[in-house]
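Renewal narrative, Specific Aim 1. Our central claim is that a sequence can be written position by position from structural information alone. The example that follows is taken directly from our test logs and has not been curated for this report. It begins with the structure tokens describing the chain, in the order in which they were read.
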């Protein structure tokens, strides 16, 4: 079965129509869908339906995990509830920062959700930025501003380590030397978010997503002025020692540093589950979602169901 899928997906004339037909059929079978989204990467321009029946266009040449997940499984196929929450919060934000943007999925969704918002996206790898820019142009989104640089706790440069065995667009690139045994190193331009926002006079920051492969604590230390003065809502990837992720999360897990820093600035922690945000006093491992949501607003309720979206937004923003 796997060999057949690999052969067919390479035949563009066969692969695209067959893929579209299979995607329709797979609505009825979760088990078969899991096989296809893993072994049949998509090529060309694909359409992803967003809330409100708006279309997002993504381009791939069969080398992009994010686009493949979104194509086979829909809008929430990549990052599930996290991307839905980001879409909803972006509607109520004016200045949005995406640190670790990759091909721009979260940035594109935020820009679609709120055309009046300014989205500032940071991605340091030039080849990935090229794909991101293609996606931005496909959707004609003028409110996304791509910055080809990394973010951290100091200005200057960073060394990033990319897995040698990563096929296609690298999903995980880390600044932690030794996170994988077989990587290639590259030097990239870096900035702190405090420096960048001050220099570029972006105004008050409302919403920030941070996904920087074990560098999240450094990114937060480099934006303490923003945390203290702007108090944006944060969506942050938190990797625990028991996380089943690429790389040595046991050695480099930074959740304790993140918890300490965000408590210092008065943030409330929300675990993301399948039906609601649940306030927790400490960061705990959640096998269903590697992201946490953080808000600086004093909490009124510990349980925020997604079914009551106005109440949820009111408590967070």
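The sequence written for that structure reads:
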């Amino acid at each position: 079965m796997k060999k057949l899928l690999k052969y067919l997906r390479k035949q563009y004339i066969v692969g695209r129509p067959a893929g579209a037909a299979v995607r329709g059929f797979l609505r009825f079978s979760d088990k078969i869908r899991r096989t296809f989204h893993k072994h049949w990467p998509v090529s060309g321009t694909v359409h992803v339906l967003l809330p409100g029946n708006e279309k997002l266009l993504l381009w791939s040449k069969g080398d992009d995990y994010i686009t493949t997940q979104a194509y086979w499984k829909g809008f929430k196929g990549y990052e599930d509830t996290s991307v839905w929450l980001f879409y909803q919060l972006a509607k109520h934000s004016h200045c949005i920062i995406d640190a670790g943007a990759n091909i721009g999925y979260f940035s594109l969704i935020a820009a679609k959700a709120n055309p009046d918002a300014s989205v500032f996206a940071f991605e340091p790898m030039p080849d990935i930025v090229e794909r991101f820019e293609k996606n931005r142009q496909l959707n004609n989104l003028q409110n996304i501003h791509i910055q080809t640089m990394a973010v951290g706790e100091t200005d200057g440069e960073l060394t990033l380590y990319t897995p040698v065995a990563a096929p296609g667009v690298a999903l995980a690139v880390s600044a932690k030397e030794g996170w994988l045994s077989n990587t290639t190193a590259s030097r990239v331009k870096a900035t702190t978010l405090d420096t960048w926002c001050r220099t570029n006079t972006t105004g008050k920051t409302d919403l920030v997503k941070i996904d920087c492969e074990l560098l999240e604590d450094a990114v937060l230390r480099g934006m303490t002025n923003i945390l203290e003065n702007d108090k944006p809502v944060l969506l942050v990837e938190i990797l625990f020692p028991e996380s089943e992720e690429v790389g040595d999360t046991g050695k480099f897990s930074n959740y304790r540093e993140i918890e300490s820093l965000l408590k210092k600035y008065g943030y409330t922690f929300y675990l993301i589950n399948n039906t609601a945000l649940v306030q927790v006093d400490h960061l705990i491992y959640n096998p269903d979602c590697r992201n946490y949501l953080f808000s600086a607003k004093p909490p009124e309720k510990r349980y925020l169901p997604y079914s009551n979206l106005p109440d949820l937004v009111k408590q967070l923003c």
